[in-house]
Structure formats: structure tokens, C-alpha cells
Amino acid sequence: MKAGLPSRTAQAAAIHRAAHQLVDKPPVFEDPLALRILGAEDEAALRAGLPAAAAAGSDFMRTFVAVRSRFAEEALEAAYRAGVRQYVVLGAGLDTFAYRCPLEGLRVYEVDHPATQVWKRERLMGCGIAVPERVVYVPLDFEQETLREGLARAAFEGARPAFYAWLGVTPYLTPEAVLATLAAVARDFAPGSEIAFDFAAPPCDHPRARAARRALAARVEALGEPLLSAFSPPVLAAELRAMGYTRVDVFGPAALEARYLAGRTDGLRLRGGHLVLAGTSHEA
Fold this sequence. Notes:
This protein is α/β, with parallel strands linked by helices. The chain has helices at 8-23, 40-48, 50-53, 59-81, 114-126, 147-153, 175-188, 207-222, 233-243, 253-260; strands at 86-90, 107-112, 135-139, 163-166, 194-199, 247-251, 274-279.
């Protein structure tokens, strides 16, 4: 990410969420604010480019962005039913959950790089999306302070469990930074907390998969946000358990397709992408 500028990959993810609302029927993930938060200019550009957005071969990232958003929000709702009332969105970007949240009494902490957060707040104001009292903004530069320090500054109740979502971020961090943050959630916060996150796995030997990975890497590197990490699913699961997570569920493309894309007639498929739901025990 370039100094002083908002995340370009966060903007790309928002465009994918918005395009999904227009292209894929029925949507895997419904977001009534996805188009609006883009702003009038970007929404008009998206609508003008829909033929390209709907073209074969352009649907993988759009589909994965939709699937991971639904996965995280479904897991959050389950945690809410179990009594959790704090939601921490790490790398919030233009995520809209806090502005359409139906869960009474839920506090939403949006953690992001200061430049990206300023950009989002300007975008919300410009498109007339009201900021509810439930939202707490936590500008945080991980090179300057820890997640625990940033949340403490925002009056986060660290003694109470929380649900954390970390989507579209880990591939752009070093493996050491990813593992340090995951360890901090397990170590520094209340037992009974959970985290949902996505990660990239090393490309398989299939030529198309390797070519797709190279193309994605080239695109994001041109945006100033190169791909820096990939994890073997079983190795990552073992790392999480060693950190103190007592529940670790890893979902690969086949499991996610069976869960979210079965029975569709539009050919939506996943060519990669993994999601994890991990939690610590109340007895920890």
C-alpha cells in the first residue's frame, strides 16, 4: 500500500461486491449498500463496464469476495446468537455491514490504516450513508502499534469475547505479520472469541491455476500492494492450534462451492481461495 493513499485492493473488493449485486442472480451475498458506497462516479463506471464484469473468466474474484463476505456474516450471526456483542472488522475497507446491521446491541469496531479509513468516511459522507452510533473507527498502523493497543484506545472491552473478521488482507502481508496478528487474537483477547479470515494457498501444479496466480500477482503489484504470503492449509491449521485456538475449521474451494454455489445454473465456481473460522475456548 502506498504511503498516504487508501488501499487500492480495498477499492477493488468493493467494486467486486457491487458488481455481484448486478451480475449474479440470485446473489450469493446480498448487500443493499454495495453500489451506493462506491459513489455516483464509480457506480456509473461499473454499470458502463458490466459486459466485461460479466464475461467468462472475470467471475472468480467477484464470486470469492461474495462467498467470503457471506461466510463471515453468517459466522458473526451465530456468535451473536451465542451472546457476543462486539464485532471487529480488520482491514474494513468499504465493508458496509455496520451501516445495515440488523443485530441490536452489537458494537462494530472498524480497524484500518488511517489513510483508508479517512477515504471511507469521506465516501460515506459523500453518498449520504449515515454512521450509526454502533460504529467505532479505529485508525491503526500496525507498524506503529499493536491491535491490542489500538482497540484499547477505542474503549474496546477486552475482557469480553468478540468476533473478528479479516477478509482480503492476509495475502498482502508477510507470513510473519499474518501469524503474529492471529496469535495476538488468541493470546491478548477474551476466551470465547472467534476470527474468520481468508488466505491464499500455494498454487497447485495445474498450468491454468499457476497462470491465474501470476496474473493476479501482476495486477496487485501494479497497484502497489504485492502478494506476500501463502499458506499450506494443514500447516496453517496446526499453527493456529499451537497458538491456542481450540476450534479450527478450514474451508477450501470444493467445500465452499458445496455450501454456497450448489444448484446454481449460471456456472459460478471458485478456482481457489480458502476461508478459516477459528475460536478460543471459554475454558482457556
